[in-house]
Structures are given as structure tokens and as C-alpha cells.
Amino acid sequence: MRLPLLSALLALVMTPVHAADISIEEYGYPLSNPFEATIASTPPELRAEVPADEDIDQADYSLRMHPEREFTLPDNFWAVKRLTYRLARQPGAAPLIFIISGTGASYAAGKTESLKRLFYGAGYHVVQLSSPTSFDFIAAASRFATPGYSPEDAQDLYRVMQAVRAQQHDLPVTEFHLTGYSLGALNAAFVSQLDETRQSFNFKRVLLLNPPVNLYTSISNLNKLVQTRVEGIDSSTTFYELILEKLTRYYRQQGVIDLDAAMLFDFQQSPLRLSDEQMAMLIGSVFRFSSADIAFTSDLINRRGLIVPPGYSIDEGTSLEPFFRRALLCDFDCYLTEQLIPMWRARQDGGGLPQMNQQVSLYALEDYLRGNPKIAVMHNADDLILGPGDLGFLRRTFGERMTLYPRGGHCGNLDYRVNARDMLEFFRG
Amino acid sequence: MKIRGTVALLALLTGSAHAQTTTPDEDGFTHPLRTLEFNPGLDQREFERATFDALDIHDPWESLNRRMYYFNYRLDQWVMLPAVRGYRYVTPRIVRTGVSNFFNNLGDIPTLFNSLAQLKGERAMNTTARLLFNTVIGIGGIWDPATRMGLPRHREDFGQTLGFYGVPHGPYLILPALGPSNLRDTTGQVMDFAVERQVDYFSYSEASGGEFSLTALRLIDLRHSTSLRYGQLNSPFEYEKVRYIYTRARELQIEE
Prior knowledge:
Strand order of the largest sheet of chain A: 1-2-4-3-5-6-7-8
Oligomer: heterodimer
Distance between the termini of chain A: 50 Å
Number of helices of chain A: 18
Number of domains of chain A: 2
Strand order of the largest sheet of chain B: 1-2
CATH superfamily of the largest domain in chain A: Alpha/Beta hydrolase fold, catalytic domain
CATH topology of the largest domain in chain A: Rossmann fold
Largest sheet of chain A: 8 strands, mixed
Strand content of chain B: under 5%
Order of helices and strands of chain A: HHHEHEEHEHHEHEHHHHHHHHEHEH
Shape of chain B: globular
Radius of gyration of chain A: 22 Å
């Protein structure tokens, strides 16, 4: 009775569905739970070796992409009237790589920083860019300040990249590369296609890390994460209280704790560990905060009056809390229906949601991606932003140029040394 | 073949996580969301409820606080951060570490005082030992041998002591240059400052009272060792988020 079960299990593990796939034991990434991987990423001792921040010659620069915004944006937006980016420069001539951050993330986000360290250590100049959905990018660099329509986002990004090149004209660059993670990977694919006609960079290689395939599937998955059934919440204890309560109890048991990755692993081994539902809720909450920021900023700049009444005077002392509360009610679906789709209809003479989804997802680039040896994709079998059929699309489109890791959740394994090695190998060519 | 299989099986069985390794479909996709238990109507409002609840922090001086927040943001960008960059440029790493250790050692004095005031005997003894080792072996606190000897640094300030005895945090307050605080913690800071001056370990207070440069160095060191940046949360609602984080972090510190 036990034997057939064992062999069935073995067969399951031993026969990867496709010959080129990496098996779990070959891969060695320890986190089998996709939610844990997404939150805690890679255990520190398994990460790739990268240079320390003090050994990186880097600085932040800013661009005036839309001088008129300095007058149209309220005073308390002064910090984002110019778009900031970060450049890490090698001492001599070197290839340059652009990194596009994921949903809502700025150029200085943790994952962008860790990719920078990896590529800088391998001898690249590195330019870190905020996502087109990030607060600073919407305010300073987005022409229509309504991100989400991939072809337009790519044009905004392309203008920023050209401005970076102009500002850093004395930087000796041998060739250009491009990468992005999560939504930034989808952006990178559209930017690469745009570059085929504009030819400002002639990217030598482009790598997509955990891109959404069907953008609407990804959005729906993320929206759904805050709908998990979480134990232990009631009228007096909210979800955050519950998590903080657990952390406090853990704190008391351990005496001293540092809130870092290593602590998260230990915490998840303890009886106080978070359940999958709680972790899902936490991940979903992060994206809800992103959608609130996007909905608010886009509405304010375009004066749509959905969140901020048009003409409402805002200065540095004005409380934004009432708008924050209103924006928090707006998830990605709400932003899509209330702001993005109406603008797309007006500008592109578009129809309904399925049509737009086709235009903003990787499907729109299928032919371009299929025939292009310079573009590759890396993804995870347990990525939370994917739906049924998405990996099949990637397999058909990219063929040999797709690497599928058996674990890692959403971008949890980017700093794992196997992934780091594969990335560098791809760009080395 | 067999060995590899056993290894894989072991890996499967010892995996601590309780999400079942779902069977990959024909594309290799494992459907991670399938194992989750969802609210049947998908209409739960827990995210909204929890976040609204977190926004409820007593902040009657919000307008003034916001202006101070932006003032500090500018001060940070135009004065503090350039000063830190200059400091990092002119001093080798070992000197910077020595400076941080020195001021941390000074900071152990109010920690000792407040550990005693909260009747935390073990922590008070730990801090006394730290002060002795670091001052004597670490030459006035420039090195930190105590941490290597297994005596970790704790921070206890008078704001925590007040909180320990049940004093509520009072209205949220943004202090010029120093940033987020509240009425209770501001009172605490004044008190800790007074303690440091009273004790006057190595006549530091006397020297810094006379010499502006020592106080400036202390401020630069504080900024150098704080990795937070204004704008780091990259959100139009950074003020609200920082307010929540500060308030909750203090509550956790008091409970510790």
C-alpha cells in the first residue's frame, strides 16, 4: 500500500514536465511555501555574493521631465516634481544595464538595489529606474499620469532613459542591456520593442524577471489576496493588531530581536508562525497601498475629482488623511474602471476590458518575442501573479529562452545564488 | 536515481511549510492560490477596517506637524545628508565606527538610569557591565568589546519609562530636526538630556556645552547611523504611514 504511493510521489518529483525544467532538488532553494518565499526572499547565507554599498561608486540624479508640473502640482509634492534615478558607475568603459522596478516601487526599492549590487559586481554601469506606477514617476515623468497602459508607459520610460543618457553623456558605455522584475519586466518587453524602431540604445540583451503574462489575471490575483479567511480577527482585533501581537509575543520569548530576514525565517519556524492566509493578506495589503497611491496621484494630477475635489486647495499643512481614506477603498479593479479605461477609450478609441487587456499584456508582443533571440524570461512555477495557461504561453513564445524555477513565489528567489548566476550568464552571452 | 529520489522525498517531507506542494499542471504551474481559504463572498473589508483603524492616532496639531515634517525633509536633503556625505568622504570607516561606539557608550547612561527606573534588574546589570567594559577595555567607548562578549546593547529612554508606568503617549508631535515624537517621548528626551548632563561622564557634557563641534559631530553620527530617508516610503501618504509606524514601534519598545 505504501509502495505505490511512494513511487507515485517519486514520479511526481522526478519527472519534470518539460525536459529543460530544473527539479526541486537540483535547484536547492529551501522555501517550499510560495507566500513565505515572496515575503522573506532568500535566506542570507544562500544569497549571491555582491559588493558592499560602501564599495559602489553611486549617486542619485534628477531629471526635469515636465517643467510645467512644478506649477500644477501642489506645494507638498515638491520632492517629486523632478524624477530621481540612481546611477552606479564603473571606473572605466563598461556595458550599461537599466533596471525597471516592479509595481509601485521606486528606483531605491530593495529588489532593485539587490539587482544593482549583482550587476555592479559583475562590471556593469547600472541605472535604477522607478516603476511607471510609482508615485514619483507618475508625478514627475508620466505624460498622462495614468499608468497601466503598457505601450504609453513604455514611451514614458523610453523618454526617461534617453534623458538619463543625455545627462550622463560623458559615461563611457560599450553596449546597453535592459531588465526589470514583476511589472517592470512587462515594461521592459514593451520598451525593448519600442527600441527596435527608435534605436536609441539597440539593447544587446533583455531579461524579463517574473513578468505578469495576462495583466488582468495578475491584478485579479492580487485583489483576491486580501479576501482570504484569516483566523483570530474580531471586532476588537484588526488584522494588523493580530500580526503585531504575534511579533510582540515572539519578542518577549526571544529577548532581543532584529527585524531582518534571518528573524523572519526563525519566526516562521516558531509556533507563532503566520498561516498562508495571513501571509496572503499581508502581500495583498502591500498591493492595496500601491493602488491607493496610484488612484490618488492620478486623480489629483488629472483633476478627475474622484478622490480630490477639483480646485481643492492643498498646501504643506493640508491634511491628506480624508483622501487617503477614500483612496484606500480603491483597489486595482476600481482604478482600472474609474480612471485607466475611460482615458484609454478617449485616447485610443478603445472598446472593452478584454480588448485593453490584450493590448497591455504580453500577448500584444507575442510575435515580437517569439522571433527575438536577445530576449529571455525567468519565472517561477509557484508565482502568485500567474494564472492557468500563463506558463504555457511563455513556453510557446520563448521556447529555449525561458527558465522555469520550481520555487520562489513572486520574485522571492531573485537574490538566490543560482538565479544570480543564471542572470549574469545570460547577459554575458 | 534512487538516492536522488530519496533526497527529493526527504526535502518534500521535511519542508516546514504547510502549504501542500500542489501537483504542477501540464505547463508546470503549481496554482499557489488554490490552497488558500477564501471568504466565500469575496467581499470582506478587513484590509479597509484594519487600515482605517490604524489611521486613528491622536494628532490635533496635524497642520503644524505636516509643515514641520516638510521642513525636516528639506533640512535633511540640503543640510544633514550633504554633511553626512562629507563626513563619510573625509573619515575612514574605522574612525566612523569609533565615533558611533563612543556616542552609543554615552547613550548607555540614560539606558542604565531608565532600566533601574523600570525595575529591570537584569538589563541594568547588563548595561552597567557594558559601560565598564567599553569604557575601560574599549578606551572610553571607542571600541565595543561588550557586544562581542555577548552583552547586547539595549535602549531604554525616559519616554519608555513613562510608558511603562502607564503614561499615555499624548498628541503626536514632529520635532524640528529630530522628527517624529509625541508629547510623552519629548518630555522623556528632555529628561534623558538632563540625566546625561548631571552624570557628566568624562566631562563630555561640559566640553560639548562649550564646544558646538562635539554636538554637531553627535548629530552627524546620528544621521550617519540612521538608514531611513525621507521619501523612502515613496507614497503621497508618507506622513500618515510614518505616524503609524512610529507610534506602534514605540508601543512595542515599551512592552519589551
